Amino acid sequence: MNMEYVPRETILNDLKSEMENIMDDYGLEDIGIYEEEGEGKDYYIGYTIRKDGKIYMINIPFVKNDKNELAIAEQSWTIQQENGEHKGCRTLGEVFQTINQLH
After folding, report:
1. How do beta strands 77-81 and 54-64 pair?
2. Are 70 and 45 contacting, i.e. CB atoms less than 8 angstroms apart?
3. 3-state secondary structure of 56
4. Do the Cβ atoms of 27 and 51 come closer than 8 Å?
């Protein structure tokens, strides 16, 4: 499997450029960037969002190389909230459909 690695800043800039559209499209109260370094080469990037007073962390798993560049490990969003997590959303649209069903 050939992974395309890009600088972390490129991914963050892409996410930041979408924040306003996502807030408007999905009626969010707040949105920010979410980053978490996992075990070994695992890395997670996405958004922290607030919708209807609830906080959700939504992220995609990445793999980090020796140059600290990242490649998407799997096109699958994870939604984390205080009472658990939901995995397997393929698009942001699916993420927000799932969030609407969760509360």
Report:
1. antiparallel
2. yes
3. strand
4. yes
Nearest residue to 45 (alpha-carbon basis) of 24, 61, 22, 65 = 61
Beta bridge partners of 7: 69
> How many other CB atoms are found less than 10 A from the CB of residue 28?
18
pTM over 0.85: yes
Whether the CB-CB separation of 61 and 40 falls below 8 Å is answered with: no
- Reading the block at residue 46, the tokens are 């996405």
The amino acid at residue 59 is N
Helix (H) or strand (E) holding 101: helix 92-102
Q: What is the pLDDT of residue 102?
A: 79
pLDDT tens sequence across 78-91: 999 988 999 999 99
Strands 69-72 and 6-7: antiparallel
Are residues 37 and 56 in contact, defined by beta-carbon separation less than 8 angstroms? no
Q: Which tokens hold the place of 56?
A: 């959700």
